[in-house]
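Example 3.
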Amino acid sequence: MHTRFQILIGCWLLAVGCWLTSCRGDEIIYPTLGDPITDEVRQGGLYVLCEGNMGSNKARLDYINLESGTYYSNWYGAQNPRQLKELGDVGNDIQQYGNRLYAVINCSHKVEVMDLQARHIGQIEIPNCRYLAFHDDKLYVSAYVGSIADPELLGSVFEVDTASLAITREVKVGHQPDELCIVDDRLYVCNSGGYLTNRYDSTLSVIDLHTFTEKEKIVVGLNPTRVCVDAQKHLWVCCQGNYAKRKPSVVVVGLQRIETGCANIAIQGMTAYILDNENNRLRAFSTIDFTEQEQPVDISAFEHPYALLATQDALYVSDAKNYVSSGVLHCFAYDGHERWRAKTGDIPGHLCRVTQAYELYGDTTTMPTGLSPFIHRVYEFVPAPGQFVNELPKYEEGDNAETMCRKCEVALCNNATGTISLGGWGGYVTFGFDHSVENGEGYDLRILGNAFAMSGNAAYGSSEPGIVLVSKDENGNGLPDDTWYELKGSLYDDPQTKHQVTKTYTREGDTIHNSFHQHPYYPQWIEADELTFSGSVLPSQTEVVNGQTVQRILDFGYVDNKPNKDIEGTSFDLSWAVDEQGKAVELTSIDFVRVYTAVDENNGPTGEISTEISGAIDLHINN
Amino acid sequence: MTKKLFFILVSALCASSVFALDEAELDSLVTRFQIEEVEVTARSLTKDVIVPQTLKGAELQRLNALSVADALRYFSGVQLKDYGGVGGIKTINVRSMGSQHTAVYYNGVQLGNAQNGQVDLGRFSLDNMDEIQLYNGQKSDIFQSAREFGAAGNVYLTTRKPYFKRNERAHVRAQMRFGSFALANPNVGVDVKLTEALSLTLDAEYVYSNGKYPFRYRRVLPNGETAYDTTAVRQNGDVNAVRTELGLHHYYRTTGFWRVHAYNYWSERGVPGAIVNNVWRNGERLWDRNSFVQATWQDEWFNRWSTRLLAKYANDYTHYRNYDERLLPSDNEYLQQEAYVSLANKVRLFNWWDLSLAYDYQYNALNRENLLINEGKEFFDRHSYWLSAATAFNVKEYLRLQASVLMTAVTQRPTSASEHSDKSQRPKVTPGLFASFKPYPKIDLSLNAFYKQSYRYPTFNDLYYTDLGNANLRPELARQHSVELAYKISNVQSPLSNDFGYEIAASASYYYNRVTDKIIAYPKGQQFRWTMLNLGTVKINGVDAKADMSFYLPLRFVLRTRLNYTYQTAVDVTNPNDTYYGHQIPYIPWHSGSVVVNLDWESRRGDHYGLNYSFIYVGERYCQQENTVYNYVQPWYTHDLSLYGEWGIRRWWLKAYIEINNLLGQDYEVIQNYPMPKQNIRCTLAFRY
């Protein structure tokens, strides 16, 4: 009895010990490198201020070096690691004035002042600040609340001396003032009343910059949020309406009213660009006669168009997606073609072009890449008929090739430890990582399966080998349509291995079902009634050992051949690559991996030999 | 201190274990209590079809836990959201389905919050709690109200019941707790035996804490150099709360009883808010008053037919005000009312077959008023109806089955906002199927499985929140599949003998849940305008493993350990085009677990001395849908230690506890930007007479 007791005590001590060793790491601030972009003009750089959600402290300033094409996420954090709690909560505006950048961080109640490389210079404390404007070395900031709480809930515009960063004057305006602009010595600010449901404001306050007093209020339209000025000094105002019966519109003050959704507005030359977020389109209007011009770019596939910047050579439009995950920034040429796109932080809202291209200080080669060592994308999933086909992953009515790939991703990406089955001989899956896999020293890649060794005789077990093909994205289109190379396994030169075999399965021939799997074996999402595969066939390794039907485990170079705990046995070296003639090929890196079932054999009750995959790891990424 | 002073203490746990020693002394009232227990649980055919996780009595009192929320951290499959401090909101999420799929019952009647569907478990004190149980799926006993069949996870809170020995007329308890961050927490309780059958309980508690705890943020550069390292003090986290409860218990014949329970909770607290750049304090204040009266009556006829009637009226007032000068001021009042009745019947057709039928009705109303913008009150209400039928039967000795079907109908009609039309929806029917298979009569090994569907109805906030609500929402559907293997073994000698004894209960379960039509906030076309949509599918796979072990050692030492471990994946499978498709949903760790070790020594006189150690681990997780390095949240783990002594001097009992929580002072966050307290201490002194 006491012995059993000691064992139990031992067990829990062990459990406690295990827990104690699972540790927290340091919390590191670092930039990560996004996917590189290629700009055709290759000039200067672009700051992207991602707002982040309220309370998340995730305002993020990213920088794109348009010359080198490097996308730096969290550039501000890298430049200013000693800023307590980084950039702050909810970025709302960014502009360059002179040789400085100014960024409004709304819920951190500050305007962050930086040099053009985004190195911190100082900050101006303005409660609930919203937008910026500049005039004669003075900065003007709209704010939802004034320096003294106002019983009427009116907002203010603050004047700040850009040399001393001191607030010099303040003027009360309307409810929840948003964007502002300056024409001659008058400042115009939108009084949105955005927090007063059913009682939105509809005016611009006009402020005389000499006396810094409100001269008048101009009625423009319900719920004005954005304003900008064209070369004729006309004011273009975005009015959001009441989000119900009163539709949003753009008002050219005193001249024109255009009914349109207007998340954002930008003027370049003689054209005003209006981001119509109701219909996902970018509309263009002449600033001379207000006639509508042809839409310069197609943004109909956007989820939520958000930021807009029109420069002389490009139109930048962001898609904020669902506002709580990464957005995408698109750069278009004025002829409508897309120059590049880049994944950003949460809610890419505000953009600022700078003429210089900067690189980050310090050694960027050691910078974490933010890359995942696990599978990122499944491009193709075409299993040959088999007992686990339509089950791993599960086929459901309405699935197609695309959705089946996504289901494979759920099973394989991000170390998910799910399993997919490639079915009988020839069935394959093609996957990739969020980066190219380098051909480095030793093994480069691990691919996991569900093989296991027989107890007592490790030479045998459940081995359902799959052959690995790799490919480089030679044409740069991001799709696996380039030359494939086989990773030469231990049976490649075996006389019994047949190369360049072709086999066709038909939907009609889908009749051999074993008693455990009564469902269709033919992949149901494939519309064609025939499936043809080609590749090499390895000889059967099935034997009966100690009364068990098992397979002889192969030496090396096959997926789902050795158990996952055998790290070496599940690893692959890109130096094994050979071309169709069997000649060794030197690959520096690869982008796509394909695995197919390499044995053509059916064992009755236990079904056909089918390669199963449960994930892959790039051995050179160590996050 | 004179004998006339009644101040005392006792946790029910302690009391009940004393009684267990000499049952002969129990008077008839206690016997009736036990009969009631037997009536309701032991004789039920479906006992153990669903094995709950339970914390009760002394074990509960000896945990390093102040509130019910703290105690629930020791259950497997549970994720706690904790915004920090005594006053911070604490809600739980069972098996990743979302906190609104978990129902919380206070003495058998569900606690509601029709406004946001969340019950802040940080407000429920452990001091008068006798038992906390968590059932995945539903309660084993089919003799329950209709509504209880409706939730995916159920937490039952049972307060202390009065126990009197022969010749005892009253018990008095008094307790004082002090602790870090100016915690002051006195608690008094009185139990009075009015007649042999009728007893009265009173309980009152006050909690104060200034919530000013230090927290630290430290970040390092990739090369290991410190980027910043700052310590600040949490502001505006103070809480002042008074809880009073009154209970009347009447037991008659051997079969029936009625109970009335009145509850009142009042609090004022600061809402400390998120710590973000340049914001180290917030100015929001919250006043709450939660009051309810509930009554239960139950009887049994012909040994076959049982009836239970429940009724409740609740009135909850909330006042929220923002004093932060940097934000737009706001000042809102909310008044929620709830009326609830339930009639449940159970018939025993044969010794192996039970049937039950229950009908519940509930009315909820919400008044909302913005005191700054004088636009009048907004008013919403809702009628809900539940009808359930359930059956339980045993096939021979080894198979127990339970099946239930619930029909839910909800009608709501916001009367102030004319644009919302009457949104009655078709009644929803949800089944539940439970089975327990015990293959060997002499070995306590069972295989339990269940399948259950449940709906979570949109809350008033989901439906009508200004500009955000969507009156067309459908309820969210959760489908649960679960299998469990449970094993128990014991070899217990007399507690006072010197022989070795042990009790071990271990179980492992696998579950697969799928939540569809998940209600999420989604941006409308316009800038920053959100709406609620039935958009979201989450697939949850998990494994829970737990082991409770007690070892009775020589010299009256008892070693108790409780181990829990959960592994789960909960991935978003809404839309393959989303960047977060296939990613773990926010705040669900892959790994979590806890260890509790208690070493207790009982002297010959019956005094207790002990040491309690607990460890909680919550593994890495992400704070947003997308699993990127910027949304990564570090694991946290805390070590808590407590020492206690309990002394009996004639009819007096004295207990003293010292707890040290977060012993190693880890700086951690459960919710991002809401720092948790570092090392903190609590001392408790309690008397019972």
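The first strand of chain B starts at residue 53 and ends at 56. The helical segments of chain B are 12-21, 28-42, 57-62, 68-72, 460-464.
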